[in-house]
Amino acid sequence: MDKLKVSLLGSTGMVGQKMVKMLSNHPFIELTKVSASPAKIGKKYEEAVKWIEGEIPEDVKDMRLVSTEPEDHKDVDVVLSALPNELAEDIELKLVRAGKIVVSNASPYRMDPEVPLINPEINWQHLELLKTQQSKRGWKGLLVKNPNCTAAIMSLPLKPLTELITQRKIIMTTLQAVSGAGYNGLSFMSIYNNIIPYIKGEEEKIPKEVGKMLGQVQDGQILNAKINARVTSIRVPIKVGHMGVINILLDEGDKIDVEEIKRELANFKSLPQEKNLPTAPKKPIIVNEDESRPQPEIDLKIENGMAVSVGRISVENNVLRMVVLGDNLVRGAAGITILTVEVMKELGYI
Amino acid sequence: MDKLKVSLLGSTGMVGQKMVKMLSNHPFIELTKVSASPAKIGKKYEEAVKWIEGEIPEDVKDMRLVSTEPEDHKDVDVVLSALPNELAEDIELKLVRAGKIVVSNASPYRMDPEVPLINPEINWQHLELLKTQQSKRGWKGLLVKNPNCTAAIMSLPLKPLTELITQRKIIMTTLQAVSGAGYNGLSFMSIYNNIIPYIKGEEEKIPKEVGKMLGQVQDGQILNAKINARVTSIRVPIKVGHMGVINILLDEGDKIDVEEIKRELANFKSLPQEKNLPTAPKKPIIVNEDESRPQPEIDLKIENGMAVSVGRISVENNVLRMVVLGDNLVRGAAGITILTVEVMKELGYI
Amino acid sequence: MDKLKVSLLGSTGMVGQKMVKMLSNHPFIELTKVSASPAKIGKKYEEAVKWIEGEIPEDVKDMRLVSTEPEDHKDVDVVLSALPNELAEDIELKLVRAGKIVVSNASPYRMDPEVPLINPEINWQHLELLKTQQSKRGWKGLLVKNPNCTAAIMSLPLKPLTELITQRKIIMTTLQAVSGAGYNGLSFMSIYNNIIPYIKGEEEKIPKEVGKMLGQVQDGQILNAKINARVTSIRVPIKVGHMGVINILLDEGDKIDVEEIKRELANFKSLPQEKNLPTAPKKPIIVNEDESRPQPEIDLKIENGMAVSVGRISVENNVLRMVVLGDNLVRGAAGITILTVEVMKELGYI
Amino acid sequence: MDKLKVSLLGSTGMVGQKMVKMLSNHPFIELTKVSASPAKIGKKYEEAVKWIEGEIPEDVKDMRLVSTEPEDHKDVDVVLSALPNELAEDIELKLVRAGKIVVSNASPYRMDPEVPLINPEINWQHLELLKTQQSKRGWKGLLVKNPNCTAAIMSLPLKPLTELITQRKIIMTTLQAVSGAGYNGLSFMSIYNNIIPYIKGEEEKIPKEVGKMLGQVQDGQILNAKINARVTSIRVPIKVGHMGVINILLDEGDKIDVEEIKRELANFKSLPQEKNLPTAPKKPIIVNEDESRPQPEIDLKIENGMAVSVGRISVENNVLRMVVLGDNLVRGAAGITILTVEVMKELGYI
C-alpha cells in the first residue's frame, strides 16, 4: 500500500513537533513536507526548529521548510495544520479553496455547522458532512477541524453519559497546564508558584464545542446538543495536562449507579479501537479507583497520552462528580489530528 | 496596661513560626513561653528551630523551650496552640482541665457544639459559649478553636451571603497549596509539576465548619447552619495560598444584583475592624475587578495575609460564581488565632 | 529638613516597583515623579502598572506618568533609572546633558572610567570622580552607575579579600534566578523543571565590573583592579536570588585562617553602616555556619534583602571556597540605587 | 538462547521501577523475581508499588514480592540491587556469600579495591577483578558495584581526557536534581523555589569514585587514579538531571585544541558500542555547539537517558571548561546496572 502523503503547517511549534514525532515511523502516513513561518522557509528543519522532543526523526532533519501556499503542498494527500489560531483562517481557507484536504487543530471554523469538529472516538460519524461540504460551500477541497484541547479531553468521558448530561446542569472547574497557552504563552515570573483564575475565551469554548461534538448531523449540518454548563478555567503551574472537575447536578428522581457508570466509561470503545488504528489508545477512558488519581505526573504517560483518565467518580448530595485528566498536547492536539486522518483514510474520505 | 502573657504550643513548626513572628512587637500580647516536642525541651529556641521566616525576633531567640505540661504554663494568661492535629486532643484538654485558656488551631473539638469555632469577623459572638462552657463541661479553663485553613478563608466572603447560601446548593472546587499539608507533608517528587485531586478529610470539613461558623448560639450550644455543598479539594504545586471556586446555584426566581454583592463584600466589616484590633485587616474582603485576579503571588501580600481576595464574581446560567483566595498560614492559621485572642481580650473573656 | 525630590525612570517595571515600594515612607527621599514608556504617559500609575508588590503606596497610586524628557524632570534633585539596558543610553545621557543627576541601574557607561560604578559599602570613595566628571565630559549634570546584579552581590564578600583575590585565580559558578532576565525574560515552558547553562554577556561582565569596583581613583579615572576569573553563569528555575560558588585558588605558600576570614566578612562595615543610612543593612555580609545555607527561601528575607549571605567557607585542596547569595532585585538593583543616593546625599554630592 | 534470569532488590523504589521498565522486553535478560521490604513480601507487585513510570509491564504486574534472603533468589543467574545505601551492605553480602552474583547500585563496597566499580564504557576491563575476587575474599558469589549517580555521569566525558585530568587541578560545581535524594528525600516546601548548597557526602564521593574508575588493575586490585578536585554540590529544584560545571586548570605550557577535544568526546566509543549491547547508547557522549545546551528538559530525552551531554567547551584564561549533563536515574543508576550485566554476559562473567 502506498503511504498517505501529508504536509504539516506550523511544524516547528510545540504541537507541530509532537506531530512530527508521532508521524515518524507511522505505518501508513508519511510526512513529506514541513512548513513554517516566512522567515524560516528554505532552511533545513533541523536548523529552523528549537526541538524539545528528544531526537529529531532522521528523515525530517534535512527537509527544507516550505511556505503555506498551495503550490508548496501540491503533491500531498492531506495538509495537517498546527497553526496558531490567529494565522489559521486565511491560510487554511486558501488551501481548501485550492483543493486540499485540510485537517486542522486551529480554532477558526470550529463552530461552523458544515465543518466537522472531530474527536474520533466521539463523533467520527460527523465526517459525513464532508459529502456535502464542497457543494454547499463551493470549496474544491475539504476542511476538518479538531476541538480545543480542553474540549477534546473533557468530551471523551461525557460521551457515554450523553443522555444524562444534555438534560442536567453541569458545573465544571478546569485546571489547565501552561503549555495550553503555547510555548511562550506565559512567563515563568507570572505563573511559577502562582495560579491565574482566568483563561481568555476558554469558559465559553468548552460547552460550545462539546455540544457540537455530541450533536447530530441533519441535512449536511450539525445540530448541536445543548450543554447547560458553568465553567471556570484556571491556569496552574504545571507543564502538561488539563484536569477538569465535572459536577453533574442530578434531579431528585435520578437513579445513578456509580459502578455502572464506571463500567460504561472503562468499557467505552469506538471505531478507532475496533479498526485498531495505529494512534488509537486501546482504552480511550481509564477509570481510576485510587482516590489520589488521576495525576499528570503519573497518568499522562499511559497509552502514549491518547487516553483520558477519570477518577473520584461518586454521587453525593445528588451531584455526580468526576475528575478528568488528559494530555493537552497529545489527546488535546497532535494526536487527535493524526487519529482523525487515520479515521478518514479508514472510511475512505481520503 | 500590662501585656497579656501567652505561651505557644508547637512553636517550632511552620504555623508556630508565623505566630512567633506576628507576636513580635505586638502592642498588648507578649509571648513569654515557647513549647515544643519532648526532644527539644530545654534547648534554646534558636537552636531547636529550623527558622524560615527571616530573622528570629531577638526576645525569642534565647528562650528555652518548655514542655506542654500545665506546670510549664502556669504564669501565662493564654495558651496558643499550633500543635499537629494528632497530638492536640490530649495535650490541650489537660491544659484546659488544669485551668488554662487555650486558643487552638488544631482540629479536635472543632465541631463540639459547646466549643466556639471562631473566625473573628464572622462569629465573634460565638465566644458567648464561654460563659457556660465551664459549667457544662466541668472544665476549670476554657477552650476556643479556630477553623481549618480552607474553611477559615472560604467562610469570610460567604458570611455576607449567609441567607442565600444556606438556602441554595453550592458546588465548590478548592485548589490548595502544599503548605496546607505541613512543612514535610508532601515530597517534591510527588507534587512538583503535578496535581493531586484529593486531600484526605478536607471535602467534608469545609461545609461542616462553615456551617458551624454561620450558626446560632442557643442554650449554650451552637446550632449549625445547613450548608448544602459538594466540594472537591485538589492539591496544587504552590507553596502558600488556598483558592476556592464557589458556585452558588440560584433558583429560577432569584434576582441577584452582582454589583450589589460586590459592594456588600467590599464593605464588609465587623468587630475587629470597628475596634481597630492590631491584627485585623482594614478590609477583610477585597473585591477584584481584574478578571485575572486573585492570584497567590500578588494578592497574598495585601493586608499582611489577613484579608481574603475575591474575584470573577458573576451570574451566568443562573449560577453565582466567585473565586476566593486567602493565605492559609496567616488568615487560615496563625493570624486567625492571634486575632481571636485580641477579640477575647477586647470583650473581656481574658 | 527638606526631602530630596527624586523621579524614577522605568517605574512600572519589576525593579521600578521595588524602588517605588522602598521609597514609600523614606525618611529623606521623596518620589515625586514616575516615568514610563510613551504609551503610558498621562495615565495614573495605578492604572498603568501591573503591580506585584502587595499594595501600591497611597501617594503614588494617583501620580500621572511622565515622559523621560528633561522638561518632565525639572523640579527633582535626582533622577533614578530602572530603565531596560537597551533604552537607557540615550535617555539617561540626554538628562545628564540637560543638567540632571542620574543614578542608574542600567548597563551603558558602567565600564566608563570616568563614571563611578557604585556598590556603596565597597567603593563609595569612587564618587570622588564626580568632582571632575563635568569638566572632563562637558556634561551639565552627573552620571552614577550601579553594577550588574550578580556583580553587586558577589563583590561584597570579595571586598574584604581584595588583596588575596586580585593576586589569585578565581573559578566561579553562578546560579541565577529567572527575575534576573526581567519579568518577561523567560517563558515558563523554557525554564520550569530545567536549567539553562548560559546567560548572555554575564560571564564577562562579572569580573570586569568587580574589577572596576575594587579599583582605585587616579586622575579622575578609575584604574580597574585585575580580576583573573573564569565564570560560568547558569539560569536556574527560582524566582529571586543569585548564588555564586567562588573558588579562590591559593598558592602553595598561602596561609589562610578560615576562621579569621569568617570574622572579617562578618564584621565588615563601611560608610553606610557608620552613618546609619536608612537603606543600609546593619550587617552587609552574613556568615553562615550551617552547611546547608545560604538558601534563597530562607536567607533573602534577612535585612530586607540588602545583605549578602555567605556559607560553606573552607579551604581544602588549597582552594578557598565560599557560597554567596543575594537578592538580585534588592541588593542587586533597587536597593543599591537608593543606598547610593543616600550616600551621595550624606557626602554632599547632592 | 536462554535468557539470563535476574531478580531485583528494591524493586518498588524509584530506581527499581526504572529497572523493571528497562528490563521489560529485554532481548536476553528476563526479570523473574522482584523483592521488596518485609511488609510487602507476598503481595502482588502491582499492589505493593506506587508506580510512576506509565504502565506496569504485564509480566511483572502479578509477580509476588519475595524477600532478600538467598533462598528466594536460588534460581536466578544474577541479583540486581537498587537497595537504599543503608540497607545494602548486609543484604548484598549475605547473597554474595551464598553464591550469588550481585550487581549493585548501592554505596557500600564501592571503594573496595577488590570490588569492580563499573561504568561500562569507561572501565569494563575492571571486571577482570572478578577472576580473583572469590579467592581473595572467600566469597562463593561475586560482587560488582556501580558508581554514585553523579560520578557515573561526570566520569564519562572525563575518560577521554584521563591523561590531562589526572595531572591537573579540577574545580567542579554540580547542580543535582531532587530525585538524587530519593523519592521522599526532600519535601516540596524545603526545595521548591529554593537552592540548597550542600549534599551530604557528595563532594567527597565524586573525585574518589571517578579516581577508582579511571584507575588500573594491579594484582587483583584497583590502583586508583589521583584526582585533584575541589567539588561543590548543590541541590536545585528540578526532578531529574545532574549537571556538572567542570573547570580543568591548565598549566602555562598546555596546548589544548578545543576542536580536537570536542571530536574526541563526540567520537568516544567503547565495548558496549562495539558489541552493540541493547542498553548501550549509540553515542555515549553528545557534544553540543549550542551555547544554551545541555538542558535537562531537552537533552535527557536523547538516547533514552543513557548518553551524557556536554556543552560550553572552551578554553579561556587557561581554564578548560565544560558543562556536563546526564540522567541520574538512568545513566546514573538503573541503566548503568543493566548495561553492566550486559557486558558481564558478553564477556562471559555470567
From TrEMBL, chains A, B, C, D:
One of its GO terms (molecular function) is aspartate-semialdehyde dehydrogenase activity. Pfam families: Semialdhyde_dh (PF01118), Semialdhyde_dhC (PF02774). The keyword Oxidoreductase applies. InterPro entries: ASADH-related, Asp_semi-ald_DH_pep-lack, NAD(P)-bd_dom_sf, Semialdehyde_DH_NAD-bd, Semialdhyde_DH_dimer_dom. Keywords: NADP, Oxidoreductase. SUPFAM superfamilies: Glyceraldehyde-3-phosphate dehydrogenase-like, C-terminal domain, NAD(P)-binding Rossmann-fold domains. The keyword Ribonucleoprotein does not apply. Residues 5-130 form the Semialdehyde dehydrogenase NAD-binding domain. The active site is at C149, H242. GO terms for biological process: methionine biosynthetic process; threonine biosynthetic process. Its EC number is 1.2.1.11. PANTHER family: ASPARTATE-SEMIALDEHYDE DEHYDROGENASE. Belongs to the aspartate-semialdehyde dehydrogenase family. This is Aspartate-semialdehyde dehydrogenase. The lineage of its organism: Archaea, Thermoproteota, Thermoprotei, Sulfolobales, Sulfolobaceae.
